Amino acid sequence: MNATVQVGELAVQRLAIHSGPTAVVPEISFTLAPGRPLTLLGESGSGKSLVAHAIMGSLPSGLAATGSILFDGADLLAEPAERRRRRWGRQIALLPQEPWLALDPTMRIAPQVAEVHHYVHGRDWRKSRQRARADLAEVGLARAAASYPFQMSGGMCQRAAIAITHAAKGSLLIADEPTKGLDAQLCTGVIAGLKAERDAGRLLLTITHDVSVARALGGMIGIMLDGRMVDYGPAERVLSAPGDPYSRALLAADPAGWPQWRPPARDGVVLRGRGLAKSFGDRRLFHGIDIELPAGQVLGITGPSGCGKTTLGNVLLGLVPPDSGAVQRQPGIARQRFQKLWQDPPAAFAPRQRIRQGLADLARLHGRSWAAVQALLDRLRLHDRLLDRHPAQISGGELQRFALLRALLLEPVFLFADEATSRLDPVSQKEVIDLLKDIVVETGMAVLMVTHDRALADRIAAKVVEFEGPRPG
After folding, report:
1. Beta-sheet pairing, 283-294 with 471-472
2. What's the chain's average pLDDT?
3. Rounded to an integer, what distance in angstroms lies between the CA atom of residue 176 and that of residue 155?
4. In the CATH scheme, what architecture does the domain 269-466 have?
5. pLDDT tens-digit profile of 189-204?
6. Pick the CATH number of 10-253 from 3.40.710.10, 3.40.50.300, 3.40.50.720, 2.10.77.10
7. Where is the ABC transporter domain positioned along the sequence (predicted)?
8. What pLDDT sits at residue 1?
9. Model pTM greater than 0.85?
């Protein structure tokens, strides 16, 4: 790569990321320029997010970066940590992959946005609060301004993180999976926002497994696999004539092209709800819902973010009581065989416990062998080397697959899959869905699949229920 860096550009030159003697990202180079964004595509664990954290200076403990990252007249890798942190929010803004971890659980959303205007831009508190309300309204969260993060859906938390990042107005924006877990309408809005950042002259690095995002943003595309950049070039060329076999597989794995799946019929209903209703304050999520989950079938639930999809699944599991109605579960089955795959896996893992210890404890508690764990590791393409890491040290997609492993280890008769593949690239998504389909056929497990991807639901669900947005009670 040419070592000359133009004013306003960011040049990543021979960047390598190591874990001890092992090169997690062997060596990559690219340049960001105003009006020419870069989108990194690739499977979970390919190193996309590590590249972003290397630029930020926030690599997880145990990882180190070499090479150079030239920005604003300096080599970021050579700067002291304190100086790099001073750039955060002012020059470099990160929209993180896990909004659950990026938001303060003890603060309402509006004050978190207002803090950016006050501390980064020096506005007084009155003006900062006004700006915060406007930022939240732009992402459709005007009514959630007084909510805490735990009171909002995963998609709503993602939009709140977008509002905070937008408020920072740094010259470099790194968007890590910005559309993950969002419905189609909100995805369109987020993409429009990223285009506006691009058109305003900000440097834009987007990390995603959603090919439609890369197509919409244009500019340059890099496709990563096992830490290597296997394809790199203008978006039009990469999308129309990918040069690597993995690139071709990635672009061909869109659920819209999958064949329809219909498993063999089985007798019995695992779980049913009658007359279910639930409201939160003056927001009525659903009312008079009748639903049943036959053995060996998948029921799909789609709808906009915050419409009550997750709440319905929690009601069916007994995690949240309905305001009215009743849930009947197949008698004689232990409660642990009714499982949930959480939308935000970091919230479901002990942050200070290594993955191996958590799985070993679960297997011992429920009388499962380590051989059963190993078999699922193999089926989910999870490397043994990940077992000795903490949840924060592995990618969101890998953590989601560990969450699925944990649920399947208990041999569930019912699985509530809440955005089960939202963190996975298309190739990994197809592999996980194929595994779920195999287990449904093998065991008769019933699946309630909540998803924003209508094409995915249409291909694998026997029936799809479309939820509307919440209404005033």
Report:
1. antiparallel
2. 90
3. 14
4. 3-Layer(aba) Sandwich (3.40)
5. 788 888 888 998 899 9
6. 3.40.50.300
7. 5-251, 271-471
8. 42
9. no
